[in-house]
Amino acid sequence: MAMKAKVIDLTNKASGEITLADEVFGLDPRQDVIARVVNWQLAKRRSGNHKTKGISEVQGTTKKPWNQKGTGRARAGTLRSPIFRGGAVTFGPVVRDHGFKLTKKVRALGLRHALSAKQAAGKLIVIDDAKLKDGKTRELIANLGKLGVTSGLVIGGAELDEKFSQAARNIPNFDVLPSQGANVYDIIRRDTLLLTKDAVKALEERLK
């Protein structure tokens, strides 16, 4: 099964039609699947380098601070104990990896549902290509205004046009990715998704 979508150029002029595969762009979006993949992506991105010192890592004397008995104070074996100022931290964070495993099938399913969610919301635009002659940011901003895009992600083919990427670099809330870099988090964090015809073909080959 397949659906038809209009193809336009960057100036919002009609440039034909394209067929979108239902198994990639026509699913009933499941927010739970999308959320699972987003959580997996963000967990992988966490650096996990937060760290506090345990009692064996705190610098300081190892001498017993006072006698075991007869002082009227509680027993103490070291001033590096967590109960003293400047001492260790009990059960503090340690350097670790926050990532967890997610099967390839679920990751691919999440990408299908993210693409389908944009299509269902009317936030998917198919463009002829993502190329600019001069690579001027001003020119690209004018074209985005014609398309009505204030927050968007452009997914191109395997190779991105260098001038287009250069022009997009300084535009806030606007990203450009090659087809192999398409991912759920970047798709849902921007309001509008713009796919080139090459990107549609590559994504369908990857997800069918």
**Mean model confidence by pLDDT:** 94
Radius of gyration: 27 Å
* Apparent shape: elongated
Which runs of at least 5 residues are low in confidence (pLDDT < 50)? Answer: none
Oligomer: single chain
Main sheet?
A: 6 strands, mixed
Give an account of the 3D structure.
The chain is of the alpha/beta class and 208 residues long. It folds into 2 domains: 2-46 and 99-207, Ribosomal Protein L4, Chain: A (3-Layer(aba) Sandwich); 52-92, no CATH class. The protein has 7 helices and 6 strands; from the N terminus they run E-E-H-H-H-E-H-E-H-E-H-E-H. It has helices at 22-25, 31-45, 104-120, 137-147, 162-168, 184-189, 197-207, and strands at residues 2-8, 14-21, 124-127, 152-155, 174-177, 192-196. Helix 2 (31-45) packs across helix 3 and helix 4 (137-147) crosses helix 5 (162-168). 24% of the residues are buried.
Descriptive tags:
208 residues; alpha/beta; Ribosomal Protein L4, Chain: A; 2 domains; six-stranded mixed β-sheet; 7 helices; 6 strands; 34% helix
Brief sketch in words of this structure:
The chain has helices spanning 22-25, 31-45, 104-120, 137-147, 162-168, 184-189, 197-207; strands spanning 2-8, 14-21, 124-127, 152-155, 174-177, 192-196.
Give the secondary structure arrangement, pairings included:
Elements: E1 2-8, E2 14-21, H1 22-25, H2 31-45, H3 104-120, E3 124-127, H4 137-147, E4 152-155, H5 162-168, E5 174-177, H6 184-189, E6 192-196, H7 197-207
Parallel strand pairs: 1-3, 3-6, 4-5, 4-6
Antiparallel strand pairs: 1-2
Helix pairs in contact: 2-3, 4-5
